[in-house]
TrEMBL record:
It is a multi-pass membrane protein. The chain crosses the membrane at residues 479-502, 514-539, 559-581, 588-610, 648-668. GO terms for molecular function: ABC-type transporter activity; ATP binding; ATP hydrolysis activity. Keywords: ATP-binding, Membrane, Nucleotide-binding, Transmembrane, Transmembrane helix. The keyword Transcription regulation does not apply. It comes from Cacopsylla melanoneura. SUPFAM superfamilies: P-loop containing nucleoside triphosphate hydrolases (SSF52540). Residues 10-233 form the ABC transporter domain. It comes from the Eukaryota. Its main location: membrane. GO terms for cellular component: membrane. It is found in: Membrane. The keyword Transmembrane helix applies. This is ABC transporter G family member 23.
Length: 677
């Protein structure tokens, strides 16, 4: 391994780098020296390893073998302009400059003064309140360069700073870079314009992860007797290809002396976890983002309201005016029927039909025979058929008088025959219950009118006393309401968090922030802090709508319920952060959200009780993030349990454990990604 020259600003010695053990080497034995107060140009085609080398220099990646040393020991002394524009398009020019100035610990006065100077130098738009997203591509790159130069760094690493600029502005930028090098600054620059590299003190030519040559431009031309740098580069490329063909068996793997040499971490990989200046900048970014995305914020605030409204209007309500086909072989005229008296002469089928109509829940449609009724069920959205036999009244009265001694003929003809369309479980089950209850009510009224005790109509020897919890009239919505609240509290923060973080990753802003010194802890804490404010509003909204506006039962401690729902939102936020740290693309993030949401919605007891699941699946369901929380909210609101009941405190324990586990997994993923989310 070559020694590091004294006084070098950057020294790279025998560096090898690949992204996994199965992938090819991206950097193969790079030896590179950048002297202080010079401009070093790195030239090479796309995919040759330039960006990977720069990421290692700025501390974004560890090297597998070799050593990297730089002359600075703080990230605020580094100015990095990435290949992507990496700007917040929702921010104005002034806001994005102020944000990065705060990241580097600059005072507001210094930020304003330096920006005015760079604005004139780089010919930035005069209106600094113009949004970055409204700028042209060239203007965005100039703003990006201004941010890089804002804090007066000692080491500049610029990835194609003159791309998209006209020749006049390009000349101004180069003049300024030369002036900076004369002031003692060191500049490392990549460019596709080979002839532009003549203005650099030293150039390094890269191809296929190898540094072909490192020299000043004039010496390079003289050494290879070439008229231009492009000709020299082509000569070196052809020589590399020829050497590679002659040494087919030569391995790209590092030699043993390099493999066993100590790997020096870049001093730019800092162990500082949090800085108040950077954290303040993160909070500023969050609040500006909220201000610029009022539509998304309205979505976050009003979506719970819409969800609660649609849920209470569409779920758990009993159907009404359900059409049933009626076949009454006993009579076609029910107009003279007496409903309340102990009338033993009128048709009892009419009396029962009138009782059904009074409920307003069933609409009876007359048909003459079974074939017409069956056809109507199949084609006219009718839910079933009620059939009274021709001898219904007489058989009914005989059964009433004879009791257990009733003849089989009277038993058969005194029954009301009901055939239902059972393809819709909820509606058919409701119709069965409704018909049973309505007949029992009808028979009880008849008994009372005839001077009998009403409870004789309860044929089974079973009496339901007052419920311990809930009520006889409890609806399905009372069962699902706590689960829907937990679901909203969990998934809305998840969606908001993933959308914000993944956008920054895709636009290269996350990478730029991390190079500027931002830590994952600062990103996480600022995200959680902003989410806390939103969660307070969201929790109050859903609780007010569900329990005050719509009057769902609430018998427990409102503060315990609020805290548990709030913690559920934090858990959803942490899951969103974890998904963003694991996935690299927007599509994969969407798949990750779907992979999490489908089992949570179907298995956590939202739709159906866990007790109905097979034992093995039930164990898995209980491990989901919101399962115990749903049971806890039900126990708090419907049963009025205190915190010390197992159903309640298990909801808190599960939520906190999931949040801690997701935090730990996110940290492990960051470490696996060389410190990048």
């Amino acid at each position: 391994m070559e020694p590091t020259p004294p006084g070098a600003a950057v020294s790279v010695r025998s560096v090898y780098k690949r992204y996994s053990k199965a992938s090819p080497w991206i950097l193969k034995g790079i030896n590179l020296t950048v002297e202080k107060s010079t401009i070093y140009g790195l030239l090479g085609a796309s995919g040759c390893g330039k960006t990977t080398l720069l990421q290692c220099l700025v501390g974004r990646h560890f090297v597998d073998y070799g050593q990297i040393q730089v002359c600075i020991d703080e990230k605020k002394l580094l100015g990095h302009m990435p290949q992507q524009v990496a700007l917040y398009t929702e921010f104005s020019i002034a806001e994005v400059v102020r944000y990065f100035g705060y990241l580097y610990g600059m005072a507001a006065r210094d930020i304003h003064r330096k920006y005015r100077y760079l604005s004139k130098l780089l010919n930035l738009p005069q209106n600094d309140e113009q949004l970055c997203g409204d700028l042209s591509g060239g203007q965005q790159r100039r703003v990006s360069l201004a941010i890089t130069l804002l804090h007066d760094p000692q080491l500049l690493i610029l990835d194609e700073p003159t791309a998209g600029t006209d020749p006049v502005l390009s000349s101004i930028i180069w003049t300024h870079l030369i002036e900076l090098s004369n002031q003692g600054k060191t500049v490392i620059i990549t460019t596709h314009y080979i002839e532009e590299a003549r203005q650099e003190n030293v150039i390094g030519l890269m191809r296929e992860g190898v540094l072909l040559e490192e020299s000043d431009p004039q010496s390079l031309l003289l050494r290879y007797n070439c008229a231009g740098l492009e000709e020299a580069f082509l000569y070196l490329c052809s020589r590399q290809s020829k050497d590679k063909a002659e040494n087919v068996e030569e391995s790209d793997n590092p030699p043993l002396m390099v493999q066993y040499a100590p790997v020096l971490d870049s001093p730019l990989i800092s162990d500082e976890y949090i800085s108040w200046a950077r954290f303040k900048a993160q909070l500023l970014k969050q609040f500006i983002w909220i201000k610029r995305n009022l539509l998304i914020m309205s979505y976050v605030v009003f979506l719970p309201l819409i969800c609660m409204y649609t849920f209470n209007c569409a779920v758990g309500l009993f159907p009404s005016s359900l059409p049933l086909a009626l076949i009454n072989d006993e009579t076609n005229n029910c107009s003279q029927t007496v409903d309340r008296a102990c009338d033993l002469t009128g048709p009892m089928s009419c009396r029962y039909m009138n009782h059904i109509k009074e409920t307003g829940k069933i609409q009876l449609i007359h048909y003459h025979n079974s074939s017409e009724a069956v056809s109507a069920v199949g084609h006219k959205n009718i839910w079933g058929i009620i059939h009274f036999t021709s001898n219904f009244t007489q058989s009914f009265l005989n059964r009433f008088k004879m009791g257990r001694d009733t003849e089989p003929f009277d038993i058969y003809h005194s029954n009301v025959y009901l055939s239902l369309d059972m393809t819709d479980y909820v509606t058919s089950f409701y119709l069965q219950s409704l018909m049973y209850d309505s007949f029992r009510e009808f028979y009880g009224d008849f008994l009372e009118a005839c001077g009998k005790r009403r409870n004789v109509s309860n044929s089974p020897p079973l009496r339901f006393e007052n419920p311990i919890f809930g009520s006889f009239t409890a609806s399905y919505s009372e069962f699902t309401a706590p689960a829907v609240i937990c679901l909203i509290q969990f998934f809305l923060p998840l969606l908001f968090t993933t959308s914000a973080i993944i956008q920054d990753k895709l636009r290269g802003i996350t990478e730029r922030n991390l190079v500027a010194g931002v830590t994952v802890l600062e990103v996480t804490l600022s995200t959680i802090l902003v989410q806390c404010g939103m969660l307070i509003i969201q929790t109050l909204v859903v609780e007010y709508i569900q329990y005050v506006l719509y009057g769902h039962p609430f018998h427990g401690d409102p503060w315990l319920t609020f805290i548990l729902l709030f913690l559920q939102g934090i858990c959803g936020t942490m899951l969103g952060i974890f998904i963003c740290f694991v996935t690299k693309q927007e599509q994969l993030t969407g798949f990750g959200i779907m992979a999490a949401s489908i089992p949570i919605m179907t298995l956590s007891g939202l739709i159906w009780p866990l007790e109905a699941q097979p034992e093995g699946l039930r164990w898995f369901s209980q491990l989901l993030p919101i399962t115990y929380s749903i049971d806890a909210i039900r126990a708090l609101t419907i049963r009025g349990y205190s915190f010390y009941h197992p159903m309640v405190y298990m909801g808190f324990i599960s939520t906190i454990c999931w949040s801690c586990a997701l935090t730990l997994w996110s940290y492990v993923q960051v470490r696996l990604n060389d410190g990048a989310p």
